[in-house]
Amino acid sequence: MRNAASLDRLVLDHLPAALRFATRLAGSADRGEELVQEALLRAVRRWGSFRGEAEFRTWLFRIVINVFRDRLRASPSATISINESHAGITDSRAESPPEAAVAAELEQLIAHEVSGLPPRQREVLVLIAYEGLAPRDVAAIVGISEANVHSTLLAARSRLKVRLAPYLGSLKR
Amino acid sequence: MAPEQRMGDDHDFDRLLAQAQWPEPRGEQIARLRERWEAIGRRRRKRQAYGACMLSLAVLLTAGLWAWSDRGVSPLAKLATRREPPTLSDVSEAHGKRSHNPQQTRFTDGTTARPESTEESNVSRDPNVYERVVLHGVWGNRSRPRAVADQRASGQELLEELIAALASDAHADVGARLATIAGARHERALWNIIPRATPARRLGAVRLLARIATPRSVSILADLTNDPATHAAAIEGLGGLVSAQDLAQMATVEPDAPLRRHLLSTLLLRRTDEAVGLYLEFVNNPRSRSEVLDIPAGMKNPPVDVLLTFLSRPQPSVRLAAAQVLGRLPQPEIAARLSESVYDVIGRQEALVALLLSPVPEAANVLREARGNLYLVAAVQAAELQLQSLAISERR
Predict the structure, then answer these.
(1) B221 close to B247: Cβ distance less than 8 angstroms
(2) pTM
(3) Which residues of chain B are within 8 Å of residue A110 when distances are taken between CB atoms?
(4) Mutation for A interface: B16, B35, B318, most A CBs within 10 A
(5) Do residues A126 and A111 touch, judged by C-beta distance below 8 A?
(6) Residues of B numbered 178-197 whose beta carbons fall under 8 angstroms of chain A's beta carbons: which are they?
(7) For A105, which DSSP code?
(8) In B258-379, which ranges are E strands?
(9) Which residues of B, range 44-73, sit inside 8 Å of A by Cβ?
(10) Is A129 close to B17, i.e. CB distance below 8 A?
């Protein structure tokens, strides 16, 4: 049933998931909220194009990603970079990175590293690793081939492995 | 690096990635977004309702103009604007008579009659028409047929008479006279009267417009719903013009509670599956439920038959909404109808919910029997639990 009432219900049901996804993409809750606000406006305008072939969540995430990309295009500084990511979260009390992890900031550090990846890699990694979507769905959302999804995911993981290598050692211990 | 070691590293890396912790969406963020979404929804619904009204208005206006310019205009008026003398066939058409064509008259021996000459035709016609059309020359702009002016004057008087009758009594019996004045001209006359009339005359005019309105009057009636003195009559008029969907949308965006109830009551008067289904959506909505539940109970003739069919719908929420409404209706015969539904596979529990809610003694009798029936006792208990959980959720 494709009417205004069903759009209302679907949007309200998926609002928390969309906000969580946008926060992961943008790296901050406030930017995530801005992304979702803009995405909601676009969802209303494009509701006519939703044919019900894809899940509503997939459709909404695609809109969030488009808004995210448009924002990046308009203002490249709207996303955090890997370099600045460390600056904001290092625990001044800690003497070395492993100690920072022990100081319970490792979780945020990893999140910042993920949100500091190049946009395409970030989109693919977040959708697969944190939203639990299948590569085929990710390919449809991001607008690339499935093979490209795998290679982008590999690139993202390699990049993160390098960035997170010191903490990987601490985890083993 | 050995494959085993690489797999182990990957596993550790996945564990590390899984620890990523972004700020969780805060309650106020979600609330802000919901608020924003509701504002977008309100604007959208208003725009849709307005768009639908405008579209129907435009279509009707175009159709009306076409009909008026070509067919709808009185043939006598057409004659009056002609630059050349009218023929008698024109005149007979103007008087609603079929043109006499001697060529078509066939005798039994297969021959046809000789066509009448113009003079013969003129003489054989109504002498008044002959005099008016041929002798006094009713062509050009020099004179209009007196019949049209007379008709207009009498129409105006009738209009005033009906306005006065309806101003004093909303249910005045104006039956046959109403058919006489139904038409675009009188509808337009009412549009002009309404803004300038005294309150009582205005009410009469709105009631009259509600009875003869065509979709061209939708926007005017929609405006008149904002006036407390005329909103009931205006909604009555709109009820006959707009779709059930439009009525429901108007009720959704209407901020005034009594007006909202009136719109839903008008919607229920349609007694169709669509209208009742749209009303039940309001019952399903926790925010509007308490306000709309008793609307059918306040109606003289609630759509009981249609509501009962909703007890066998596949969606449990729809069935429960119908049961809540039926349970508030005070008619004893509904208990008898519900007692039949408790033996249905689908809707049994909801029928029992309606009986539990029902204020009539007959419902209590049915329930007493059901509690003593091994086949139904479990369903009665389930219905009681459902009612309790409903009451708890409403208290929240």
Answers:
(1) no
(2) 0.41
(3) 16-17, 19-21
(4) B16
(5) no
(6) none
(7) I
(8) none
(9) 44-45, 48
(10) yes
Asked if the ipTM is above 0.95, the reply is no
Q: Which residue of A has its CA nearest to B17?
A: A110
The per-residue pLDDT for range B199-240, each reduced to its tens digit, is: 888 888 888 888 887 777 777 787 787 777 788 888 878 877
Both tokens assigned to B390:
């409903």
State which of B34-38, B66-70, B114-118 shows the largest mean pLDDT.
B34-38
The candidate with the shortest Cα–Cα distance to A86, out of A77, A75, A97, is A97
Task: At A160, list the tokens.
Answer: 């993160």
Q: How distant is the Cα of A76 from the closest Cα of chain B, in angstroms?
A: 21
Please give the structure tokens belonging to residue B318.
């729809």
Nearest to B57 by CA among B227, B226, B185, B242: B242
B18 touches chain A (CB under 8 A): yes
B51 to chain A, minimum CA–CA distance in Å? 15
Are A97 and B6 within 8 A, CB to CB?
A: no
pLDDT band at B75 (very low <50, low <70, confident <90, very high): very low
Contact B13 A36 (CB under 8 A): no
A31/A36 Cα distance (integer angstroms): 9
Residue owning tokens 């059309």: B133
Tell me the longest C-alpha to C-alpha distance in chain B.
120
- Conformational region of residue B140, where left means phi above 0, alpha means psi within -120 to 50, and beta covers everything else: left
Element (H, E) at B28: helix B27-66
Tokens of B187: 């509808």
Residue B132, C-beta contacts closer than 8 angstroms, at least 6 positions apart: B138, B145
The answer to whether the CB atoms of A33 and B36 lie below 8 A apart is: no
**Chain B contact set for A37 (CB, 8 A):** 33, 36
Check: CB of residue B223 under 8 Å from CB of residue B57.
no
DSSP H or E run through B210: helix B199-212
- pLDDT higher than 90, residue B279: yes
Inspect the interface and report whether the beta carbons of A164 and B13 lie closer than 8 Å. yes
Tens digit of each residue's pLDDT (9 = 90 or more) over A127-157: 998 888 888 889 988 888 989 999 999 999 9
* Chain B: closest CA distance from residue A20 (Å): 6
Of B16, B30, B36, the CB nearest to A16: B30
**Cα B23 to chain center, whole Å?**
50
Range A157-168 burial, b when 16+ CB lie within 10 A, else e: bebbeebbeebe
Across chain A, mean pLDDT equals 78
The letter for the amino acid at B124 is S
- In A, residues 33-72, which contact B (CB 8 Å cutoff)? 33, 36-37, 40-41, 44
Contact between A137 and A58 under an 8 Å Cβ cutoff? The reply is yes
- Residue B88's nearest CA partner among B125, B58, B33, B137 is B125
**Helices and strands (DSSP H and E) totals, chain A:** 9, 0
| One-letter amino acid of B315 | Q
Residue A15: other Cβ atoms inside 10 A: 19
